[in-house]
Structures are given as structure tokens and as C-alpha cells.
Design brief:
single chain; 0% strand; 5 helices; elongated; mainly alpha
């Protein structure tokens, strides 16, 4: 009976949290994709880098409550590497790092998703 109640109540109560997780991860993804586009185009990228950094700073505390700190640290380190590669005009390294960071953001997007295996 308790398991049935959990299965019914968790999705109902978690809907708002799910929307917030999706919103924050999508905001960060869009900022990173804008940075990627500017790098590919050879355009100035300072504004896009700042937008990505600010998006992450706004969301970092939220994601810290949902996931392990190792994952948060990896995002922080990836952003730092991107900034360093940009300062050295290392386009290939920037794009590779952005690709990995976008994959991390997708995994963050699924952080609060209810999976049956988590309940058993």
C-alpha cells in the first residue's frame, strides 16, 4: 500500500520540480549552443560565454540539491576549460569541450526524473 501511494503521489508532487529542472537545463543548453555557434562562425564570443556562465551560476545551487557534487564540479571544470581554450584561440578544443558539456547538461536535465529502478 505504501509503495502504491508513493507511485501515485511522487509524480503529482514532482511536476513543478520537473518543469523547473527542464527550464534551467534548457536555458543553459541554449546559452552553450549560442556560444558554440559564435565559435563556429569565428564571431566574438565574450557575450555568449558570459551568458553561459551566468546561466550556470543561477542554476548551480538548484542542481546541487538534486545531484552529487562530483557532477556539479565537472560542469564547473568544463566551463573553466572552455574559457581557457577560448583565451588561447583553441577552437577544436573549445568545440570538443562544449560537446561534452552539452551531454552533461542533458544528464542534469534527467536528474529528477522518476525511474522505477530508483524505487525498487
Amino acid at each position: 500500500a505504501v509503495a502504491v501511494a508513493i507511485l501515485i503521489l511522487l509524480p503529482l508532487g514532482g511536476g513543478g520540480m520537473r518543469q523547473e529542472t527542464v527550464r534551467r537545463s534548457d536555458e543553459l543548453r541554449v546559452a552553450l549552443e549560442a556560444l558554440e555557434s559564435s565559435v563556429l562562425d569565428g564571431a566574438p564570443h565574450t557575450a555568449q560565454l558570459e551568458q553561459a556562465r551566468e546561466s550556470w551560476l543561477r542554476s548551480r545551487r538548484y542542481f546541487s540539491a538534486l545531484t552529487d557534487h562530483e557532477r556539479i564540479d565537472r560542469v564547473n571544470e568544463s566551463l573553466a576549460r572552455i574559457e581557457a581554450f577560448l583565451s588561447q584561440n583553441e577552437t577544436a578544443e573549445v568545440l570538443a569541450e562544449l560537446n561534452g558539456l552539452l551531454a552533461m547538461v542533458e544528464r542534469l536535465r534527467d536528474t529528477d526524473r522518476l525511474f522505477l529502478r530508483n524505487l525498487l
